[in-house]
Write a structure and sequence with these properties.
Blueprint lengths: L1 H20 L4 H9 L33 H4 L13 E4 L4 E6 L3 E2 L8 E6 L3 E2 L5 E2 L4 E10 L9 E11 L2 E4 L2 E6 L3 E4 L3 H23 L2 H21 L3 E5 L4 E6 L3 E4 L1
Antiparallel strand pairs: 1-14, 2-4, 2-13, 3-12, 4-7, 5-6, 7-8, 8-9, 10-13, 11-12
Helix pairs in contact: 1-2, 4-5
Keywords: Signal
Protein name: YMGG-like Gly-zipper domain-containing protein
């Protein structure tokens, strides 16, 4: 209703204005007024203008959370090894077998060689020194026998033992060793020469003493025996510990080994 009243008032005022001016055809003016846009009154409407509602903000897509497990490399810490240790007290013995032939003419003082344990040895805390463990020994005496076997010198001392790959110092004595073997230093030819020389000396002595063949033969026999004794008494010998010979060592201090 309000829009129609306003439109009629505007139309009336327009007619009056045209008539007052008198400058034109009223009918034509009226027609132009009628040709005005039908909804021109909308501009005069006292209704508040409709404003478009602002579009709702599009929610932001949250960024994917960073995985701390992926960002930080994981490191696994192995459990600490709890290796057992056992001990052998002073006085304990180990039976060994030499690994090679050891002689006074091949091994000098300071040279080392290995032997192996021939039986398991039980230590404390359930630890065992297994058969086949390597023991290192050092030559402390090495001299051939001058004028007989009795002067041969060949002696050793234990240095270390290796048990399951771990080496430990070893303080012990060699308390038993297999009988040594002996090799003559002089050749058989030299020995035969000594015997022959003794026989010749005996034969000459027999001739001087008896002045006959019988005495000469007896003198030669006696001389040969004397020459043989001289040869044996003047022979030099090398002493040897045979390969795989038995030895026994006795601890003088406690030995600690890993299980």
């Amino acid at each position: 209703m309000l829009k129609n009243s306003i439109r009629q008032s505007v139309f009336a005022l327009a007619v009056v204005a045209v008539a007052a001016c008198g400058g034109g055809d009223s009918s034509e003016a009226a027609r132009e007024i009628e040709l005005a846009p039908a909804d021109s009154g909308a501009a005069l409407s006292d209704a508040p203008a409709q404003t478009a509602a602002p579009a709702a903000p599009t929610p932001a897509t949250p960024a994917p959370a960073r995985s701390t497990a992926a960002a930080r490399p994981t490191t696994s810490t192995p459990a600490a090894a709890t290796a057992r240790t056992g001990a052998l007290s002073a006085g304990a013995t180990l039976a060994l077998a030499s690994g090679s032939r050891i002689c006074t003419n091949t091994h000098k003082v300071g040279d080392r060689f290995t032997a192996t344990t021939t039986a398991d040895v039980q230590a404390t805390n359930g630890v065992t020194i297994p058969a086949g463990s390597e023991v290192t020994l050092e030559v402390v005496e090495s001299a051939r026998g001058q004028n007989g076997r009795d002067n041969v010198k060949l002696a050793f001392k234990p240095v270390s033992i290796s048990v399951r790959g771990a080496s430990s110092n070893l303080t012990a004595d060699v308390t038993r060793v297999a009988a040594l073997e002996y090799d003559r230093v002089q050749s058989n030819t030299t020995q035969a020469g000594k015997v022959a020389a003794g026989a010749a000396v005996g034969a000459i002595a027999g001739q001087v003493a008896g002045r006959d063949t019988k005495s000469t033969v007896i003198g030669a026999a006696v001389g040969a025996a004397a020459g043989g004794a001289v040869a044996a008494a003047t022979t030099d010998y090398h002493g040897c510990l045979a390969a795989n010979a038995a030895l026994t060592i006795t601890l003088t201090e406690q030995l600690t080994v890993r299980g």
